[in-house]
Structures are given as structure tokens and as C-alpha cells.
Design brief:
alpha+beta, 2 domains, 71% helix, transmembrane, Probable multidrug resistance protein NorM
Amino acid sequence: MGQEAHARGGEGGRRITSGVYARTAVALGGQYRKFFVASIAAVLLLQVTIVTDTIIVGQLLGPVPMSGIRVASPIVNMLTVLAMLIGVGSSTLVSIAIGKRDAAAANRAFTLGIVLSIAIGAIFALVIAPFAEPLARLISSDGATVPYTAAFLRIVTASSPVFILASVMAMLLRADSNVRLSSVVLVVGGIANVLLDLLFMGALGMGVEGSAMATVMGMVAAVLTSLLYFRWPHRTLRLCRLRGGLLPEVVDVMKNGVPGALRMLFACIALLFLNYVVGNRVGVGGIAFLTVCGNVQLLAVAFFSAGGQAAMPIEGVLFGERDYGGLRLLVGYVFRVVLACVLVLVGVAMLFPGQIIAAFVPGGIPDGEWLLRLYSVGFLPLALNYVMTYYYNTIQRRMVSLVLTLCENLVLYLPLIWFLTNGLGLVGAVLAFVLAEFLACLVLVAMTGYLRRKLGYASLLLVPNTTRDVVFEATTPASNADASGIAHCVKEALDDCGVESLLSLRATMGVEEMVAHAASYEHNRGRDVLFDVIVSNLPDSVQVSMRDNGAPFDPLRPDVEDEGIVMMLSVASRVQHNNSLGMNLTVIEVEKGNSNK
């Protein structure tokens, strides 16, 4: 038992010593990094295309058309609100159903998400598109921007179904662990948008209408790309017939999507109010500066949003499995990744504000450099608020997400906009954003602290440290030495809690054979395979859950001939297996009172 094994990856490549195994974020962190890298690449490219779109409009058409699109953005963002409502809601239900191994529920949530995208998008198009011009007059504080705002709104809102469906499909694909295709969907849409911008506004001189057409055609390209999912051989989600009793399921989708959607909705309301107040108090120049800040924030939010959304499928599965230890480790890892990103972004804004502003407004903006530096300080609390909104929604603490979002965007932000902007002008508008985000963080800490004390939880994550039944959990590399070492630890843990010796031996055998098989499995060559092992002493059985990041392997396949696996199947009462989040999950149960099997 003196041998040592090393686990590389998350947690700084920390050492795991045989005989004193501990649960770490190594395996889960490795999978999260794959999700995050793919998500950030896609989301960042999508945000870059939006920023590039704004730069192209500003450079080719001038600041007034650019401000016109800025004025239209709260209405266009309503499409993102609807996409978040449907996409986050349905993908959360899919993830939890996968964690519970309920394929039928996962398929229904998948199908319902697609149907709702098309139906709600069609309703939005019919209600908004015909009234683009009066709506543009209503939300514009300067008549010069009205024609550009109306033209952009008319084209984009008429294509609402495809706009919503593109975003929802990307979220659903990620819920089924197809992060690569989910990212490709957004990448294709973004690249198509930029190329068509240059064609329509540059070569063809179509003006703001060209920008709107490029946006729509980019979303069409994204939807067409997402259809490749139905040819993916490893997909677990299927379209199914939706029969009767849909209202409760629609309500479930909406309830799970509400916090994320309300964040966007409240942000749209705040943006409308901010544009109105700044437009009247400062003028078009103030709106132009806020356009720069808004686009820089889009790039920052790409990291926060990708960080939170990349964790959601994993968080949903862990929550569905009641793996609270893994959930706590994952959230800590997410925070470290997002914090590193936000510090880099704030540093860039602090060092190069002049260059950033010049990319949008060639002549620069008076006092713009120090104001942009001040604005970027708000990204630090904004990152925390974003990640926690997604997290609390995933673990079904929707009211916490709702209150946080409400305070951040309306209760705190709107009064600050009014008083500070009217009192201090553009400086006040920037201060309003920074103060609202920091105050929202204080509200979050106070609210979760109260709930933690009331419900008896150990941390602000509002979940138990572990379930009462868990007697052992650890992370181990897959090697022959560690197969023996981790098995010994499992046996000791079960013996210590009074489990019959023969029964604990059968459970231990399952752990040893699975880890040993992974060490010798030919498809794992060159991989650092890690197992998260969780042992539960249930009233009627001992349950061992083993999740590994190795090559897909199903021990229940009829063609498996490995002697150790065959022996494991013979001594277990039940064995279940699935592959989700790109990881194998094998659950072994040994019934009590049946130790003579």
C-alpha cells in the first residue's frame, strides 16, 4: 500500500497517494475544460461577430447608423431572451433526466424545446415585425436614428423563428455532450454573418438593411448546421411524438429557463432606460460611447456566459445523481477558470482603452479612456453574478436566481441610472453599472447566507456536503496498483460502517475489476484515465458509482470477454451503465441479505 500514483489535469496536477485517496476535481475539471474551451471558442466568436458587425457599420456608415442599431438592440435582444427561456429550460431538463437515466423524459424535453422555438418565434414575428417603424419612434430619443432602427428591426424580427431555433439547438446539443457540434453551429453562423456584412454593406452598398440581412442569413446557416446532429451516431436524444398533457411540461421548461431569460429581459429594459436617459442628458455622443462599452462587455460576457453555460450540463447531471461532493468541486473549479479570464479582460481594458475606442469611433471620444477603465471594473462582480445565476437555476433554486437578476438589473440599476446620470452625466451612467453589480453581489451573499443558516447547509452553494448514505468517495488513476489500492479503501470504509464482510468483498471486487480493466483497455492507451468512485451504504444494498474519462466502454455488452468484467457481473446484483458528458458511468449494486450469490 505504499505505492504512489499521479493524476494530471485539474487541481494543478495534484498527487493522489494510494491508501489515502481523496475526491478531487481532476476528472470533472478535465471534462469541464473540454466543454469550456469549445463553448468559449464558439461564444467568443459569436460575440466577436456582433462586435465586428458594429465596427463595420461604424466604419462604413458612420456613428448615427451605428447608434440606430444600438437603439434597436433591446428589441432584438428579446429574441435572445426567448431563446434563453426555451433553451436553458429544456436543456436543463435534458441534463437532469440524463443524470436520472430517464431517456423518455430527456427526449420529450428535447422535442419540446424545438417545437416551442418555432411556435414562439412565429408569434413574436407576427406581433413585432409589422410595427417596426412606430416601435422605432417610441424607443428612439433622437429622430436621426429612427430610419436605421426601423429598417434593422423589420428584417430581423420577421425572422424570429430561425433566430431562436439556432440558439436553442446549440444549447440542446451541448446538453447531450456534443460540445463540438454545438460550437460549430455558432461558429458557422458567426462567420457567415461577418462575410455577408462585408458583401451586403461593402460591395453591394445595402446599408443597415444589409447588416440585418447578414444577421438573419447567419442564423439560417447555424440552423442548417445543427441538423447534422441527427446523423451523429452517438446521440442519445431523439425526436418523439408529444401527446396530451403538455402544459405541465411547458411550465417546467419555462420555470427552468426563467432566471436566465429574465436576466436578458431585465437587461433589455435597463438598456432601453439607459439609452433614453443618456440620449436626453448627453446626446448621440453618449450613446456612441455606451455602444463601445456594450460591445466590450459582450466580449467579457462571452467568457462568463461560456463559463457558466459550459458547467450547466455537468452540474445538471451531478445534481440529478445527487453527487453533491462532485458538484462542490466542479463549482470551485469553474470559479477559478472564470476569475482568471476576467482578470485578463480587465487588464486589457485598463492598458488599451484608447485603441479599443478608436476601433469603433475613429476620432475617439472625450474622456472615453478613463471612463472605459472605470466601466471594466464592473466586470469582476458581473462574472460572479453570471456564474451563480446559471448555477442556482440548475440546482432548482430558481427564486435565488430570480432575486439576484431582479436586483442586479432593475431594483438597483434603474434608480442608479436615473440619479447618477442626471447628476453626473456620462460619468454617472458608468458608475451606475459598476455600483449595481457590486451591490448585487452583496445581496447574493446576504440572501444565500440566510438560506444556508435556515436550511442547515454548510456553504453558500445550498446543497448538502454529501448524501447521508455516502461512506466513501475518491478520485483514482486507472492503474493495476491503484485498482488494488482503491479497492482496499472501499473495503475498509464498508467494514467500518458494519456492512457484512462477504457483501463488502463483492462490492470491492467490482471496483477493482473496473479500474484494472480501464488500465489495460487498448483504447485507453495514451490517456490519463481517472475514476471518481462513490460508495453508498443504502438500506437494502451497497451501491458503487464509478465515473471515468476513458474511452467509451460498456461492461454490459454481450461481446465483452474480459474475465475480470465477467466476474464483476456475476457477483453484482445489478449493473447499470451509460455514457454522458463524454464520460463512462457504471453503477454496481449488491443487495443486502443476498450475499451468498
